[in-house]
Amino acid sequence: MSESTHTNGTDGGHVNTTWKLGLSTLERFGVVIAFIALFAYNAITQPETFLKPENLRNLLNQNADIGVIAVGMTLVIIAGGIDLSVGAVMAFAAAVGMITMNSLFEGSMNETLAVIIGLATGIGLGAACGLLNGLLVTIGRIPAFIVTLAGLIGFRSVTLAIAEGGEIRAADKLNALQTFGRDGFKIPGVLDYYDQPVVFYWNILIFFAVVIAGQLLLSRTRLGRHFIAVGSNEIAAKYSGIAVNRVRTWSYVLVGACAGIAALMSLARMNSVSSSGVGHLAELDAIAAVVIGGTAMTGGRGRVWGTMLGVLILIMISNMLTLADVEVYWQGFVKGVIIILAVLIQRGKAN
Amino acid sequence: MLEIRNITKQFPAVRALDGVSLNITAGEVHGVIGENGAGKSTLMKILAGIQPPDDGSLTLDGDPYVPRNVNDASRVGVVMIHQELNLVEDLSVAENILLGREPRRFGLVELGRMRSEATRLLEEIGANIDPRARVGDLPVAQQQLVEITKALSQKTSVLILDEPTAVLSERETTLLFKLVRRLKERGVAIVYISHLLPEVLDLCDRISVLRDGRLVAETTPAASDADRLAALMVGRDLVDVYPPLVPPSADTSRLAIRDLSVPGHASKITFDVAPGEILGLAGLVGSGRTEIAEAIVGLRPISGGEVRLDGDSVRFRSPKQALERGVAYVSEDRKGRGILVDLSCIENTTLPNLAAYGRLFPDRRRERATTTDWIERLDIRCPDPRSPIRTLSGGNQQKFAVASRLDSKPTVVLLDEPTRGVDVGAKRELYHLIAGLARDGLACILISSELPELLGLCHRIAVMRQGRLAGVVDGPTASEESIMRVAAGVGEEAA
């Protein structure tokens, strides 16, 4: 027999595991590190302005609505889709919600009830727009990019038509909405410049509540698991007995509902709707936050908490640039660079 | 020619390669065999520049060979043909062969010269393929020839073939072997990875056996035989590959197929499966076996006939509906359709039956417990059930694929090539699993291209030919020859 038997040779093949651990940590938690670094930088360079509770509060408040949309966007992208229509749906839902409230209130309905019905209408309309998107994508078999691009153009146009290109304001003496927008959670012991307690507006709390709900949905529910499965490999998911079309449609309904919630948050904050301004470019900010947060654009892999940090990072960057007297025109450029960097850092695994 | 010295590669959970040394010489076909997870694929990826080794060295013609990527490797003539082919489906054959090296004049591609160049190269290896055809339209076997042509059009000194016959019919395999032998005569060193021992013994000049990341033996076909190689791969002698056949528990029909027609693939197919019976579905690739199974579970339209489950006429519109009625299908395409490679082993196991773990919130502790249960029952090697399933070897992935379909306790299970790409040891375990299912009263349909396994496992074997049922033979008394005669249309024929 010409058969030779080999035994194991060297013992010198130790792997540099620490280095590998460091790299994969950077991939997974890069967004956390970036968040902490940015926060620390802002806190050190602008201790007077940035760290002030009312500054932090205002920054969050101005972006909470986009944050809610970004949570919905995370789910759609994980499920293998995309929704470009969110900003337009937000404006549409805000306009219809406002009109509903106004007409009910002027029809001498109780103020609170009118506002609640208006809010429900807005969220329902957002979800309905999402349902339409979802059905066109699944049953209509039109690529999501096309469907929601048409939605972006179409829903904005309807909103402009409703408002005749202008603004819809809350009816006279309809104050409940505005009161809600200015009310919130008073943090004991935290006082502002005028020694008044700093109020963390309800909007901010809604944002965090949606983040928690979104993360729970993704990691703990059956639907969330199905989003991941469908986004990861649609055919295998179908073979595994998942109702793929229903799951994908749900992802659009949820992001639509998020756009509806965002619409109402902006109503509460502004007490009016600008048909061209509300939700303008919200889809891009939301996608940027999702990408920075470490969710794969190809679907199947992602996290809501990452998106939340993505939103906060984008907020801090604009704040930083504003405080550093960088012209507003240049801020978009910096955001663009940050998005590319985020993808480069987090790419490792996918290769 | 290519010298491999003490290559070691560590992955988070396992040491994939542990001081492996090999010597590949010019003009030889060097077989590399081993169970799934033995380290064959990792070794080949290192040779082809896809992954770097952690330790050890490679030399090519005496020079250090440190490929950082596939391009580095192919530049010095080391080319690998993957199980999954790397062709651009939307480009033509000629464009694929000369991709990146298109003949150009004034910066424009010369289509005419490209075509004639491709034609010459194709003729050289004896492939009869139209260079203008779109690659995506070709059958897999021809795509593979295109890939080989592409590899050889560059100066290739080492050609690595990874399970090349997995997608080929017998005739195509013969052609491939002719080609490999011609290349050998031209002085190309060929590394040939395969699960099929007869084919390795037939083709290779030397055979290296890997087990658990180590080289356990290097031998020649003359000095060895299939049993010996199998024992070396598994590390023990294989006995009782096929479990004893127990007669079906009942004489009734659980699943009855009546005159079932699938447009373009099968017409007027009729058969029955009883509880506790294993019915084999044999036939050449393309004879419509998979399509029938897919039609039964609602993945393909049915143009005529009916499917009866326990006497009720059913027509499922999706695998979901089929599963709800207790009919499970395990696809032949494991990575594309059977499992979700990026999801964890737990998530894969419970996915088809997730509703049973809680309508809204799946109970993660129970999911974990079930998975652990399956790991024990099927003897799955899985260091951490929470890790992505792609980190496991093919055989273990397949066991999870089967487990996931069984978790909802179906009464009928259709297994499509369940042992494809699975090593001998795992095959044996899968056979025992299937026989166990039948003993528990499940009606099993086993689709397979491997006649020995059909003969070893099935009560009856239905043979398909060109979309028709050519005949049904009795499992225990049939032989490979008698089945092939029916499949090829010689001899007896059912009406």
What does this structure look like?
The complex is a heterodimer of chains A (about 350) and B (about 500). Chain A is mainly alpha-helical and about 350 residues long. Chain A has one domain: ABC transporter involved in vitamin B12 uptake, BtuC. Helix content of chain A is about 70%, strand content about 5%. In chain A, strand 2 and strand 3 form a beta hairpin. Chain A is globular, with a radius of gyration of 23 Å. In chain B, about 35% of the residues lie in helices and about 25% in strands. The longest helix of chain B has 16 residues. At the A-B interface, helix 8 and helix 9 of A face strand 1, strand 2, strand 12, helix 10 and helix 11 of B.
Structural class of chain B comes to alpha/beta
Taking the alpha carbons of the first and last residues of chain B, their distance comes to 59 Å
So how many helices of chain A? 13
Range of helix content of chain A: 55-70%
The CATH class of chain A turns out to be Mainly Alpha
Helix segment tally of chain B:
17
Key features?
heterodimer; A: 351 residues; mainly alpha; ABC transporter involved in vitamin B12 uptake, BtuC; two-stranded antiparallel ribbon; two-stranded antiparallel sheet; 4 strands; 69% helix; globular; B: 495 residues; alpha/beta; Rossmann fold; six-stranded mixed sheet; 17 helices
Provide a brief overview of the structure.
The complex is a heterodimer of chains A (351) and B (495). Chain A contains 13 helices and four strands. Chain A is mainly alpha-helical and 351 residues long.
Task: Explain the layout of strands and helices.
The complex is a heterodimer of chains A (351) and B (495).
Chain A lengths: L16 H29 L7 H26 L7 H21 L4 H28 L5 H19 L4 E3 L6 H7 L1 E8 L5 E5 H19 L1 H11 L1 H6 L4 H27 L1 E3 L7 H11 L11 H20 L4 H19 L5
Antiparallel strand pairs in A: 1-4, 2-3
Chain B lengths: L1 E9 L4 E10 L4 E6 L5 H8 L7 E6 L2 E2 L5 H6 L2 E4 L11 H5 L6 E2 L2 E2 L1 H14 L15 H14 L4 E5 L7 H16 L3 E5 L3 H7 L2 E6 L2 E6 L6 H9 L20 E8 L3 E8 L4 E5 L6 H8 L7 E6 L2 E3 L4 H6 L2 E4 L3 H5 L6 H6 L13 H14 L16 H13 L5 E5 L7 H16 L3 E5 L3 H7 L2 E6 L2 E7 L5 H9 L7
Parallel strand pairs in B: 3-10, 3-11, 6-9, 9-10, 15-20, 15-21, 18-19, 19-20
Antiparallel strand pairs in B: 1-2, 1-4, 4-5, 7-8, 11-12, 13-14, 13-16, 16-17, 21-22
